Amino acid sequence: MYTDLYLDANATSSVLPAACEAARQAMLDCYGNPSSTHATGLQARALLDATRACAQRVLGAGEGQVVFTSGATESIGAAVLSALVAVRERRARGEASGKLLVYGATEHKAVPETLAHWNRLLGLDLELVALPVDAQGRHRLEILRALAPDAALVCTMAANNETGVVSDLDGIEAVLQSSGSSAYWMVDSVQALGKLDLRLASRRIDYAPFSGHKLYAPKGIGMLYVRAGAPFTPLTAGGGQEGAMRAGTENMPGIAALGAVLAALEAGDTFRSHAQMEAMRARLAEALRAAFPGIVFNMPFAGSLPTTLNFSVPGVSSQELLNMFDAAGVRVSSGSACSSAKAAPSYVLAAMDRPDWCASAAVRMSFGPLADAAFIDEAVARIARCGAALRASGLVPGAAPVRSCDGVLQLRQDQQVSWLLLDAASGSAVAIDTQAALAARMENLIRAHGCQLRAVLDTGAIAASGSAALAAAFGIAPGWPQDAASVTLGDGSRAAALQLGARQLARLSSAGGDSYLLGSPDLQAAHVSHAFTGAAALPGQLNAEACCASAVARLARLVHRDTVLCRAEDPAHELCSSPAAEYARGGALAPLLAAEPSLVRAPAAASNDAQALSPAELAAFLAAHPQAQLIDVREVFEQAASAAAPAAVRSVPLTELTAHAPQWLQDSAAPLVFFCRSGVRGARAAACLQRLGHPQVWYVAGPADAVLAAA
Asked: Minimal CA–CA distance to 633: which of 573, 584, 578, 693?
């Protein structure tokens, strides 16, 4: 019944069918300019006036004005400009005007950025002050009480877009009244429409912005409530439309569509009631608790919108959860749609003093008042599927992994990289450069694969702060094992080595730190598949110390041109490198590598930049290249949560790419085509293999669903 389950309604919504029809009618039959005085224009004017009247009734605007705008950002801009112009006029008359611009610490970023913008342009030099919130996300009224006498403008939300926390508007108003504050008051009401009774006319709220696309109207239409008697300065001047409050010909299709939504709200027979939505949220919360043991909800259920859930799962990042939900056809977000592409933790949750891991791993799930029981039933089923997929990945305790991982596993935390070597045949594991944030994940993976942790090693390149904790979890001491054997290396020297099934791991010690060589069946240069270089050879760099140069020179004698160099830091998301790639790159490593002719690859052997394919081009490409390997680089939990892939698709999660790179470089006749959820990780995989020297590399610049359909 459902292909996609859209659970990101706080970001935007679909358009109500009645709204689509209203917009269509406005474009086909009511296309007149409402400023025209002929019959066609008067017909449009009647529609405009009727929609405004309906809006005033639904919002409880009383004698206040409702101005149609392009959306919340414009409405916020008009409100802030109007208030600050009035403050400047008060100041010019010598009246008390306030010196603070107070905004809630959890406000949408549009508010403080707009405040700063107009404060600067108007030359007011007012001080912007973030009003703190408590652990429940509500404004600290005792602090507002201290700030109110000096406030020129106070900006708060009706309900928060990330957490759904509902503000105590009555409490805020009481503070403003009792303190005698003359501050203007703007209440961002974007998330309130259709969910809260704002009683605008009965409060001292001066300005309230609204956005149509948050409640089943199209994008590009919004409203601004202006209290009767509140000052107003238009953002635009021109033909005097909207009672000279907003110049420019009105967006009549958008207004007509918004009118249909407002009419449905007024009729009360289209949208779910508050109690019904609370019951739906309770079912989703119950499903999430069952799917993800240890889940933490970042909002109070009692004081939040019934349509919003904000949660974090221990040990799993928000991006990983988003990728997994997306693979299951469940659309959620990591917070505000305007900032979810940024890597920073949620400032909203930070303001609520949530733990750092919660703020970094938060996911928002939100639905609209059109949701029905069948929709929630399907959401509950898919949440259960996602929980099973995560457990089957080995990332969290609870089940054996859906498939065994054998070889080199790359784990990232920001720019730093930890490595896990898993050998399925011997049931052995070795950790290298364990970061504290990844220690629990590495422990879960080792236990899920039934491996014995043989060693917890550091290269010295980074602060491997999780090494001691990981070693303690398995009852061993961190560092190189005392009972290690030794092996003869390619230059005839001896080194301590660990046997990992058919492979051996050797330790190279130097004053600049340790490096490790992994090879099979021995550690002669031609058989060294991976080198964990640590501080000795960061790609493109060379420590100025002579000891580092000496270590690199020695390493160059022990590897071959396609040995995969595994670094401890990877700020550019290159994943890995090789001696041949580093020689081609030039820089400080090239002269040392050039001394070993076997490490140099002819430039003609590598292609230019990895090429992109659109999903539409994929089928024809695969038909023309029957030997091509179509490789899914999504992680195991994403693949487990999604529909089954065709047999022609090979699974190599990006975290396992370095394990497969040596074989791909050795057997380079077959084209490689990488894909992922969005194309980003596929492009990184393709760029990595192209840089390593594979001559035929492509990636699909499109979503996995389209790729699987074309495969």
From this structure: 573
